[in-house]
Amino acid sequence: MNNIIDAFITSGKAQKAQGQTFQSFLASLAVSVVLCGFVTSVHVIFRAQWLRLYGKSETVGVKGLDRLSFSNVGFSHPYLYWAHLVSAVFVAISVCLILQAELRSYSRFEESLGVQSTGSSILIVSSSKKPLDPKAIRRHFSAMFGGVQGITINRDLRLLDAKISRLDAWIAKLEAAETELVRKASRSKGMPAQPLLAQHSFVLLWKRYLLESAVSQIAYIVGIIPELAWLETLPSWMVPAIQGVLPPIMLAVWISLVPMAVRVLVNFQKLHSHQAVESSVQRLYFIFLFIQVFLVASLSSSITTVLAGLGSNAKSVPLVLAQNLPKASNYFFSYFILKASSTISITLICGEKLLNLLLSYIRDKTARQKWTRSEAINVKLWGTFVPD
Known about the structure:
Layout: E1 3-5, H1 12-53, H2 81-113, E2 122-124, H3 134-140, E3 152-153, H4 158-186, H5 210-213, H6 218-224, H7 238-267, H8 274-312, H9 317-324, H10 329-349, H11 351-363, H12 367-377, H13 382-385
Antiparallel strand pairs: 1-2, 1-3
Helix pairs in contact: 1-2, 7-8, 8-9, 11-12
């Protein structure tokens, strides 16, 4: 943030109108989701009837979700591809029309609000020192927005900002100490713990299970480290649970840390506004999801079968690709179902607010900390919400 004329450009009225417009956009987006779900349901129902009459059988290798995709269309009934094409085009056109209608509504909102010179402002970001002259700025913008009411030049206040941050840290420590002192002075007195039944054991119960919970590939680990051969003596139901459930959970945890890491890296860019920060986070996070979820999953789910077929007979390249590439879409079917279910569940239980409520009882010691956490809950991070 280099140069500032007056204040920020958006007034409170404009922010309220933009919020209403975005709520309308979310409502239309929900309508489009319901529409897509309806079309998909109808498509699945009709496909369930068609595959019994015109589809391929399991002897050909069509199983699971492949029975609902266009890879299950029989060779003698190619006209059934029109059903898939019409459904896809209908959904795409419907979503585009909804987006176009919402953008027009947003434009009408902006035109109805108007921009008043007394309530608007302009933020100038420039690396050149020449526009820092107030006279040049006033002369340049004299014919815009009814003239310039005031000019404020931003200065390099990093030293002052560091001192303010240090002062805020000292104030937080002082408030925490005062709150702890008042809490200790006002709480009721209790009796010390009396070991009447048994002595307290110093053994940490979780320590003996720490190694088992960190194992994801027991067979390979036992082959590398013979000292862990006793892991093979675990019950038969426990080994598949450890190998199958634990790795996806760890992967989900690592994936959930990616938005936090992206936001930390974007903050190092020292962007001039919160909107610019969210835009940069959205762009980088979308690139990560596109590469990780789309490209990597698509290639890894079909490359092994495709390479095996191509290696046996190079002349059957079109046939092998036509048979195996559509199967890669099964990953996205299951991914969309899982994502929709998890998003709906998290929205209904308000997981983020519930977690902040629990952390408030554990970590927040002063009234200022509780107020800051309650205010931060209402801040929506659109940079990670929209791509996800």
